[in-house]
Amino acid sequence: MKRKLVSSLGAFVVLGLAAGVVVSGGTPQWVQALIAGKPAEASAPACDSDQEPPEAVKALIEALKDKDAEVRKSAVLSLGRIGLEAKAAVPGLTQALKDDSVDVRGAAALALGRMGKEAKSAVPSLADLLKDKDRDVRGAAALALARVGKDAKAAVPALKEAIKHDDKQVQLYARCALVVLDDGAEVHVGALADALTDKEVDIRGTAAYILGELGTLARAAVPALTAALKDKSADVRRAVARSLGEMGPDAKGAVGALAAALKDDHVGVQATAALALADIGPDAKAAVPSLIETLKSKEVEVRGAAVFALGEIGPTAKSAIPALTQALKDEDADVRKAAALALGKVQALEEG
Fold first, then answer.
1. Same structural domain, 21 and 168
2. Which DSSP symbol is given to 22?
3. Can you give the C-alpha Rg of the chain in angstroms?
4. Using CA of residue 55, residue 56, residue 59, residue 61, what is the dihedral sign?
5. 9: domain CATH number?
6. Residue 49: its pLDDT value, please?
């Protein structure tokens, strides 16, 4: 239930591009396609280094050489979605960082980021891409370096130069990578937190998104994020709530503010706040009364998120059992399913 709801929420454009802060028809396809992409987990199943890559991957690697830029872009997007199983494409994707097409370069950077440390050989090329003429691509390169992780240490000098860039977006993404590389992490998290009060809405939204991308590494920003739940932009508030959720129990100090956000004027903010409380888990028990009240919402997305949150809070949400029982009669089947699962978690854990 959680992931289904998360995928429907819509977040800030990963690269916080100038025209706007949310995904829209005007956003480059490669940004939209990879917006929710996370770096590959080191323990995730993947092909052994001496194993033949899947036939589809081999075909897509060949398609990276197609004379049509749209075909190359589509191949890059597919390789990014495949992730670790496509690690044989790292050399081809590294070459694609020099493509004439801005979309191909940007998508290649993010695809490499999806492969985590398996893309460490691309670090020098990604560092060079921080000087790309296109701001989107520069941001993609910085985010990719962050996702490669500690193996991207060689890019630290280039990232330090990038935080001096005139473009605030590039500065923010460079700081994201430097936090991951543990190079003055406290200073960079502080700068990202300060950006939550920037006069430009896209900067505030991008800062919120990045802090969520960093997760527990940015736990020091929880107070600033909590304050940002009152931002005048609903899109920013939504991004802030999502980011607090990404920090899990480390964001327990924001429980009161997230509970208040369940009454936000924007439905998306309400649902995202409920999901954030779910991520915080048992430490969000103080929000149980507010979540119970939220079960009366007219919006199925909000009701579903609230039900899920109560289940994740667990035994200390036992006061919600009557309301969850009533939710078994909800008009929406997904909410009814979530209620059944939540009741099992609350009651079984309470007794066990």
1. yes
2. B
3. 21
4. negative
5. 1.25.10.10
6. 52
